[in-house]
Structure formats: structure tokens, C-alpha cells
Amino acid sequence: MASSCSCNDEKKIINSTNISQLYYTDLFPINENGNKPTKEFLLKVIEICLDFIQKSNDRSTKVIDFHTPEELQKLFDFSIPDEPLNIGQILNDCRDALKYQVKTAHPHFFNQLSCGLDIVSLAGEWLTAAANTNMFTYEIAPVFILMEHHILKKMRDIIGFTNGDSILCPGGAISNLYAVIIARHKLFAEYKAKGLKALSQQLVLFTSEHSHYSTRSAGAVCGFGTDNVIDVPCDERGRMIPSELERLVKETISRGDRPFFINCTSGTTVLGAFDQINPLADIADKYNIWLHVDAAWGGGCLLSRKHRHKLDGIERARSVTWNPHKLMSTLLQCSTVHFKENGLLMDANQMCADYLFQQDKHYDVSYDTGDKVIQCGRHNDIFKLWIMWRSKGMEGYERHIDHLFDLTDYMVEKLKDRPDQFYLIIPEPECVNISFWYIPTRLRNVPHDRQRIQELGTITPQLKARMMNSGTLMIGYQPVGEIPNFFRNIISNSGVQTKDIDFLLSELDRLGHDL
Ligand code: HLD
Fold it and tell me: What domains lie within the chain, and their CATH numbers?
């Protein structure tokens, strides 16, 4: 560590034009005079990030430089050395990490529910990292706690909850877990102290067969067991069938068990289906069952006058999950859960740790939100949402959502124009998920029977492998129930244009016609 931390050398080091030879000890906070090298180092890191962002927005670059895990272990030095590495090496490490990273902001990346990179939200994430605070008390995060308060109230207003409470969570699955915990608390408040013995009946949860696996996971985590999370059949568009739900609820009651939680999905992960909330809410009311709406994916539609109707009846739910890091394009992660009734989160989860949540502080301790949650420390996920929302305003966000759906319509039209090459599984998608098979030349003029469907299911992962190896395009695939592997294309990057959809279709044909 030749140049590190020798105070006599400090002036020489700081005046040096080559920061590569410096060490972490020459930067803040070890070097209290480290302003200049710290600034130079961070500006270089920003340059590396800007280069990555510029390439991600350049359609002539690849989406991915794919290597197998074995190859990447050889290409990249993951080891921790005994001796400190100099800043030059640290900058190289930063560059290399991004070199092999998938460009999820590239307009030819259609692989995940969260695509794209909003620049204002990114600025928010950078500022958040600089502030580096924990979100458990007002004491150490006053501005960000009040920001959460305002934005979460705004989101509840948009949902149609006139009162209530909310919290930001690490991901939609945990948001859904909170809903189950709070529903259980509402029914059996003594569970908190007495545990499983407090449950006088077997509690049963209902969710559609197409819903996210997190309701099942919450059933396992909360002590009900996955056998007591019942999959409700769906119609051909992937929406829960209300009459099937009622049949299963009645069956549960006749067994002597207690139906207690209905998870209604607004935007299923694969097909993008919206369960019809009102008929499910009628059943929830009739049998006094907690209704949760998992709008992790589709919640963004609430910002659009054109698409909001897909969530009609959402205000009848007792809880709602809504992830701004999906349709709203806030940087990962940003996930919220909202409750119609105020006070339940605190009541269910409060542990009153007196080294954090002292009740005799000199301010209103209801702003110490850390005692409402099961996780203690919370990352600041609000600033990147707040600043992005301010930059767009309500109008800009509506345009953002409408643009994604307009492009989806465009792509569906183009697929319908080429029925020899593409087979749409859901002809009229409800969300920005487009489910389809690509048909290679040899399967074009054959009947669409079981055998062709099986072959298309085999071809799909082969075409995905070609995409990854060529690095030009990424689209996800999966089977659903009886339907073998098919592509699920997601348009959630507001930078995508019609020319990118045109590229997607011709690139699939270029890569796959001879399969
Ligand atoms: O469960 C999730 C599935 C996906 C996806 O298929 O892209 C959650 C997310 O994405 C996500 O972005 O939080």
C-alpha cells in the first residue's frame, strides 16, 4: 500500500494528476483533506456509469455479452485480496462489472417486468446512496419519512382508500406477505403473543392458478401450509373464475375450515390478466373474507384514465400491493403495500425496541415507521419514486403508461399481420405482456395441432439460446399449465419505439427461421 495514509505525503498525493495510484485511504473519510481525490474518483465512476447508460440507449450495441458461469468465473476476478487494491484497479473493477452486465435499459430488452432506466429516478437513487440512511426513524431520515408519508397517502387516494396506512417493502412478494400477516392479525390478534395455538381453525387462502407464487409462499411462512393455499381455476384469458372461487369457499366451510384470505391479481406475471375485482369482492363480503389485490404489476394502470377501469372495484379491497418499479419504471426496488384500516401495521408488528423507538422522544413518534414492520432496517426506496413522479407530474405518468399500452397494441397488430410466423396465445392482451410462439419455416404450413404445439414449445428455448448468444435481443419464456414454452414479451421501457418492435420481429425471424 505504497502511497496510502502517510500524512507527510498528503499534499503530493492530492496534487497528483493520476488518481489511479492512490488508495482508499487517500479518499474521504480516512483522509480528512481528501476532497479533491474523492471528487476525481467519483467523477470517474460517474463517467463509467454514463458510458454504460449511453451504450444502453444505443441501438447498435448488444443487449448482452453472454458467458456461461464457468467462463465468467475465468474472465472476472471475484476474489478478495489480502492487500488493498489501488484506485486504478477499483475503477477497472467498476468498468468490468458493467461490461458483463445485461443492459436492462436497452430498447431491445423485453425480458422482465422491470425494463428501462429512468434518468431522474437514477439521480434519485444516487442521491439516496449519498444520504445512506435507514428508514426506521424520523430521527435519522426526517425528509424521507415525510416524503413516504405524502407519496403513500397519494397512492392510497388514487386507490380510493380514504384513510388507511401503507409501507414500502423489499419487493412485491414481501408486500403480499404483509397483507397476509395483517389479515391474520385482524382475525386473531392474539396470534402475536400466543403463536399457532391462537388459531382455533385451519385458515385457508385462495388465489388464482395464474397468480404469483408469493401467496403460496406466504401460506408456508405464516404457518398455514401450502396445502391450505388453494388455486382457483381461471378462464381462457387467465382471470380467476368467481363461481369457482365461491364453490371452493363453500367446500372449505363445509370441511370446518375458515376461508380467510382471497388474493385477487391485477396483472398476472405471465399472461398479464386482471381478475375482475367486483365479483370477487362480492364473495369476500358475503363470506367475510379479507380481500387483497395484488396489483404489483398492473397497479400503474391506476395512473391512466384509459386503463384504470381494469382495476374497477379496487377500493373495495382491504389491502393492495402496488410496485412502482414495474409499470411505473421507478428504479429497483420500489414496492408498496396499502391497508384500508389505519393502525393494523403498528398493532401487528410493533415490538417497542427502546433503543430505536423510544416513546418519550420530543416529536410525534408515529413517524418512526420502523416499528410497523417485521424487518427493522429499511432501505430508502422513496426518493427515487418521489423525484421521478415530480419530474413527470400526473400528466407525464399518464402519458408514460398510455405509451406502453399503445406500443403493445402496435406489436399485437404486427403479430396478427404475420400469422405464418407468429401465433398469439392471448389475442387481446389486457396488459403489456404479449404471449406468443415464433413459427420457423418448416412448421409454417402445417395444422396447428398438438404435435405442432409441442414442437413450438421445444423451439422456444432454442430460439432464446440463440438470442442470448447473439446478444441482440432478450425476451422471456415459460410454460403455463398445459401450454408448453412460449415467449412472454414485456413492454415496460418507455424508451421503446415502434422501430424496436419492428426490429424484434425481424430479429426473431433472422435467428429462428431454420429451427
Ligand atoms: O415475480 C416477478 C417476476 C418478474 C418477471 O417475470 O419479470 C417479479 C418481478 O419480475 C419484478 O420485476 O419485481
Answer: 17-103 (no CATH), 163-349 (3.40.640.10), 389-512 (3.90.1150.170)
